[in-house]
């Protein structure tokens, strides 16, 4: 798995990158938790997500947001980190111009950044939001949410309480033309201590079903003229 350095908006960004053997393979970008609370691209969940996509033939990248590891710049409360993620996707796409689709997976703070990236990039056709924090971050920009995806959280999460995540899910589920899948890991806290295995089993099941053409949203009803 090559270590890479690429240019970001605030200087160089450090990542781990695994290209697919297939030129037209989809791209997956994995986004890590909050930089000021110990989040890095080497977080266990980020690492496992990276390999999940890689094993399924994706061209895969995880990277450190600005100020983390060898990535330059200073923490920017989300705005700069979103620009970092966009630059990361640009960089992978420049190496894989035949790739037509992309997935984004984010954990905690990374889930918030990932959903914002989703709004900006129409080529993102699937997402995974792991332990998003609608009680802390504003998700109202998802109007409408452009792609189907998975939202997954633990029922013992005190950082992002279950009722807040449920509220976000219910809001997104009302939209036509996309399908929001919601999974809850029993007994899991925000860090999925001793629960990473069931978390990854849910993520793998969701991705496999999407890749098999399942979980297709109902088409929006046509207006009668």
Automatic annotation (TrEMBL):
PANTHER family: AB HYDROLASE-1 DOMAIN-CONTAINING PROTEIN, ALPHA/BETA-HYDROLASES SUPERFAMILY PROTEIN. It comes from Rhizobium deserti. GO terms for molecular function: hydrolase activity. Gene3D superfamilies: alpha/beta hydrolase. Pfam families: Peptidase_S15. Residues 17-138 form the Xaa-Pro dipeptidyl-peptidase-like domain. Keywords: Hydrolase. This is Alpha/beta hydrolase.
């Amino acid at each position: 798995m090559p270590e890479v350095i690429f240019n970001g908006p605030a200087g160089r960004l450090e990542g781990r990158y695994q290209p697919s053997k297939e030129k037209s393979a989809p791209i997956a970008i994995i986004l890590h938790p909050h930089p000021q609370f110990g989040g890095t691209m080497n977080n266990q969940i980020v690492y496992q997500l990276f390999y999940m996509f890689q094993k399924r033939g994706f061209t895969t990248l995880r990277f450190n947001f600005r100020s983390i590891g060898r990535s330059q710049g200073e923490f920017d409360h989300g705005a700069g980190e979103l620009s970092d993620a966009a630059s990361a996707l640009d960089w992978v796409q420049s190496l894989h111009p035949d790739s037509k689709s992309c997935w984004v997976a984010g954990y905690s703070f990374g889930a918030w950044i990932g959903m914002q990236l989703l709004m900006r990039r129409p080529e993102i056709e699937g997402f995974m939001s792991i332990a998003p924090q609608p009680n802390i971050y504003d998700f109202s920009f998802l109007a409408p949410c452009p792609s189907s995806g998975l939202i997954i959280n633990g029922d013992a999460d005190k950082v992002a309480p279950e009722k807040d995540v449920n509220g976000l899910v219910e809001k997104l589920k009302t939209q036509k033309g996309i399908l929001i899948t919601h999974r809850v890991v029993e007994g899991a806290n925000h860090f999925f201590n001793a629960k990473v295995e069931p978390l990854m089993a849910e993520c793998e099941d969701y991705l496999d079903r999407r890749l098999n053409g399942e979980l297709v949203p109902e088409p929006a009803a046509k207006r009668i003229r």
